[in-house]
Amino acid sequence: MNKKIEKFGKLIKKAEKILLINHIRMDPDAFGSLGAFYYILKKIGKDVKATNDFLPPENFSFLESSDIIETGIDIAEFNPDLIISFDAASIGQLGETYIKYENIFKQKDFVVIDHHMTNSGFGSINIIDDKYSSTCELAFDIIEKLDLDKYITKKIATLLTAGIHTDTNIFYNQNTSSHTLRIAAKLMDFGADFRSTMYNFFQKSSWERTKLFGFVFDKMKKSEDGKIIWAIITKKDFKKTKTGDEDTSGIINRLINIDGVEIAFLLHELGDEVKASFRSKEFSVGDFCASFGGGGHMLAAGFRSKKNIIEVEKEILDKLGKKN
Known about the structure:
By secondary structure, the protein is of the alpha/beta class. The chain has two domains: 2-202, inorganic pyrophosphatase (n-terminal core) (Alpha-Beta Complex); 209-323, Diaminopimelate Epimerase, Chain A, domain 1. It has 14 helices and twelve strands. The protein has a six-stranded parallel sheet. Strands 7-8-9-10-12-11 form a six-stranded mixed sheet. Strand 7 (221-222) and strand 8 form a beta hairpin. The mean pLDDT is 95.
């Protein structure tokens, strides 16, 4: 990996215009890793743009960086020398932006930075390592190895911390390593605001979101042996509770933490798709979700489907039945 990082560093030095992109409907890890590079590349004099099909969720506003993301950028007009993707496990996660400008992505130097085990690599340089808890942890190592850590500010440190905190569930998940904790300590030394990321992503809740959690827990289902638990949220449910996709954060972790549960999944309608989120204690949900066109990690993964939510539920249960 060190040779790839070295080559990446040379591409950064050579490039004048750099385009950053992360996976659609970004989470804090995708946003934090991209944001950190955005500010550092700006500091070293690069012309940088960051794009996504969707703007960051409202609950990211405390990071004071949401305005860096632009939708609908004319990438052909910008004509970047280098494109960098963050936290996207597959090319499909780059959304309509990639589809529209596929030729440019294929023609340019294209670096993929990611930590998902199901990512087989879709860039000209792929810096992918699933030993990392998060893309933010990996991003810090890259920044440090390229001698760019001298540009880290409190804001950048907090962005990276946000991704590490959320992907490790504040160091609870099994993907937390001693290296993760050492990086977290370094970020604290750079001034990272640990309390704000913990509060905004794990403790803060609106009246509506709290009602949604209660609504979901009241509707959740379980297998006969109690080892599989799941819940469904429809558009009508969101409308009834005056909530949205961003309010579902944390539900799946509550489900997997129920005593005796080995696999948990949450299905919710999102636009014209169904979003499936999985957690497990031993079973490889990464491989399982890959069979549906998604992916992720061994114990945390997901996928999206254009099928009806009830049909998706049945397919999942049928396939899990065959696996058990």
